[in-house]
Each structure stands twice: as C-alpha cells, then as structure tokens.
Give the backbone structure.
Amino acid sequence: PATDAVYWVYKRLNRRLRKRLTAFLDLLAMRNLVLALRYTLAGEAPPVTLLNNSLLAEPLRCLVTTTEDNETTIAQLEAALTSDYPFAVGLTATYRSQGPGGVEQQLADGILQYGLVRTRNGILKGTLRYLVDMRNCLMINKLWRWQVSQAPPLATGGLLTTISLQSVWAEHDSDRFTRLVSRLAGEPLSSTEAIGMEQSLLKGLTRLLRLAGRDPLGLTVIVEYLWLAQLAVHNQLLRQTLALDREELLEEVLLP
C-alpha cells in the first residue's frame, strides 16, 4: 500500500535528508491531518489506512479520533500545533466564525506559506509554489462553478500573482483563466470540469518533478515518489467514501 511506501521511504532517510526534506514532509503530514479532520468533524471515524500513516505524530492521531465535541477538538489541535506551527494560532476562532472549511483553509495555506519561508532548496520551493498556484486555480474554478459572489481567499507565494488571479476573478475571464492554468500545467486543459482540471495540474506537477529529477542523487526523486504515493492513498480513500454524484468533493485533496 502507498502508506506503507511512504513509511518505508521515511524510515530509510538519514537525519541529513530528513532535515533537507522537512518542509515537504510537514506538508504531507498536514495533508493527512486535514483529511482526517474532514472525517472527524463530520462525526465519522477516519479510515485506519489514513491513521496508520506514520508521518502523522501519535498525539495528533489520538486527537483526530477523539469523541470530544468539534470545538474542543479544534482547541486542543490549536494548542498542540502552535508551538511548532505559528500559523495555527487562532484556529479555534476560525472554526467558530467559518466552520470546518475555514479550519482546513488556514491549515492548508499555512503549511504552504510556512514551508516556503523555511526551505532554501530550489526543488522544494518550486514544488510548494506550484501547489500554491494549483490551490488558487482550483479555488477560483470551484467558486465560479458554485456561483459564489465573494472573492476567493487566495494564497500568496505562487508563480501566478494574486493580482492577476484576482483580475481574472473580477472580470470572470474564463478564457484568460484557461490560458493561465494551461501554462501552469504545461499542456492544454483537457477539461475545465473540476476533476479534469485537477488531473491536468497534478500531471503538471509530476512533469515538473521528473524534469528536475534527472539527477538521481538529488531530492527530486524522493519528493516525487512520496507525493505520488500519498496522492494515491488520498484519492483511493475519497473514491471509496463519496457517492458517484459527489465528485466535486474530490478536488484538491489538501488534500489540500
């Protein structure tokens, strides 16, 4: 299973490699946490496959299997995270005002921004920037589809500036948006539907990593392997859980 693959690779990384990959390993762990929270806050037990992923620390695994009420769970989570991840400050207040979606956004955006600040490695920075762009593009596409009038909360740090994306949003310029996403993905979009766009962007990230991974001694091979392994687990879990007519909930498993 892919979770076993992630664990297998992680256990074989020496201390130096783990340190160099910290920003990416933290991203994978946070994605696990966010997905587990989706189950917990909906009153369901997270899948064992997800909880067994060793990149999520034991205290956090215990937290997301708690039977406490949701606000208490979020307050405990905030207390557990803030010493190491300052972007988690105010998580409980976010839950009160914005609900589970706001919590997920704060954690997903926060770990990307935090990683960008901390890492000096060019491959890791490029990966995180791409994920910021991917998240922003999928957010715009989703809110257009849902006909939401409020401007999307875009994350900074990507290669596509928030100013250009906000302009696209304000003008509802779908042609320009498609061109931007196609350029990011490195190929024409096969579809502007949620799943089609996500798949094109995921292929774009894989292509980016493989082009950068021609040096077999670099970090890129490890990053690509861990990314694809975890993505396979998350997609499998969601497709097992969601009804066929709810595919829109599969987009950007951040999962983010």
The longest helix spans residues 91-118. The two ends are 21 Å apart (CA to CA).
